[in-house]
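pasting for the record
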Amino acid sequence: MNMEQVTDEAGLAALIASREAPLRIVGGGTRGMVAGNAEPLSVAGLTGVTLYEPGAMTLVVRAGTALAEVERVLDAEGQRLAFEPADWRGLLGTSGAPTIGGVVAGNISGPRRVAVGACRDFLLGVRFVDGRGRVIKNGGRVMKNVTGYDLVKLMAGSWGTLGVLTEVSFKVLAKPATEATLIRRGVTAAEGVAALTVGLGTPYDVTGAAWSGGAALLRIEGMAGSVTYRRDALARLLGAGWDAAEGADSAALWRDVRDVTPFAGRAGVVWRVSVKPTDGPRVLAALGDPEAVLDWGGGLCWLLMPEGADVRAALAPFGGHATRIRGHDPAPVFQPEPAPVAALSARLRAEFDPKGLFNPGLMT
């Protein structure tokens, strides 16, 4: 199948305005979540940082720019995307380069979300082309909203079903001087989540709380002296049996959690389940204790399951939702919406994509 390619916003708008057949929006081609038989449209040519003001902690960048390039530019000024976007290429078995537009489209947020928030919480503005070929701007420096919707929040996590992102602007934060992770090995999910809950309830500014491979992990970041003091104080509070990893060794642990490395190259269907944190271990028990990585203090459960496992039925008593990130399964990719929410979603799609062009069938 041929792939349409665009290199500027005006060309993208003209293409969409004249388009009748559906399109599958492609950035770096790394996410793997597709539906339908739509022709691919690559926005990887929409690249470049258009504004970066380190003093104002503001970054504006075109949506096709590689995430690695964004991180390189920020790192040169001692700054970062605090929401810790993941790289799922190993998990999904894909290649290419993750793009910043793909990060926003999926609201891709890592372990630090438990402390600072998600991708959408750091978005200041977006530009995108809707299904009529209109260029729409919302938030940030442009401050123009032609629809009355909070499009910054709507576009984050819409997976390209409402429009094609062309530019995004972020609040960025300073990188900490160092980090440390407290580790308690050989604990069950229930024991681990209990410890994570204690850690998150302290005044020691925990920025990561996960259970993976039978180990509970609690991360602290900041100036070296402060990290040492808080690490030691938290260790005393938690009691005996905790080890510590520092600096690069600590960072490697959280990359594995962020990217769900334990499931990379493994057979099975990968589900991402969101529940109340203290319900994480109960969800695992209801599913027969599958292999799991629990992030955000237990509120985010990554599960490796056999094909056909009825994850959503087991989840129903807990009131959470499940997304199939990898693998084939009769169940839809995204959690079916309650009727009132589904009706609202349909109205939004009718407003922004009346011809049904963008990623058809992906979220319905």
